[in-house]
Amino acid sequence: MDSSEFLEFLTTRTSVREYGSTPITDAEIEYILSCASTAPSAGNLESWDVILVKDEDVRLCLCDAAFNQQHIEQAPVILAVCANYVRSMSRYGERGILYALQDASIAGTYMMLAAHSLGLQSCWTGAFDDEDVREVLDLPQHIRPVVLLAIGRGHPAPTRTSRMAAGEHVHNERW
Ligand SMILES: Cc1cc2nc3c(=O)[nH]c(=O)nc-3n(C[C@H](O)[C@H](O)[C@H](O)COP(=O)(O)O)c2cc1C
Fold it and tell me: Nearest residue CA, atom 10 of ligand 1?
């Protein structure tokens, strides 16, 4: 893949919130998780974990925890990517909180892009009640849910969402 193909790959990903009923295969899930395993992490500690959710009842509970966002119930697979504070803080102390959040975010991003490379659709979902998700998924206190990544088979959005010009993010040398 050359650089223009890479940009094309990135720009053709869109968030999709409606999915058909065709399941995601085990091979697809395995591929997505393998891709996530290549993500960089602070100290190479990989301070993230993921709960693979396929069960309809659990998805329904997660949908409630995510303020009734219907795509969470509808997606055949939810990857609940979590920061593992203990793994990171054991080496980095308080700074480990930030590192674990970064590790989980990067791993989740890799999963989202891996799904895209398979022609699957996804929606990064960050709006949820932490405590409710914690309860639904039996998460221990040192595990913080970072993203509910909904993955399914849908139709890419016909038009891309707009973006700020890249330069608007940039401050040269100083803020
Ligand atoms: C941190 C974060 C939180 C998000 N939370 C939600 C969410 O709770 N529900 C939702 O439908 N989309 C959510 N999104 C998806 C964004 O709405 C979407 O990425 C953005 O509008 C750009 O559209 P695109 O992904 O199609 O390019 C979230 C994305 C990010 C990065």
Answer: 125
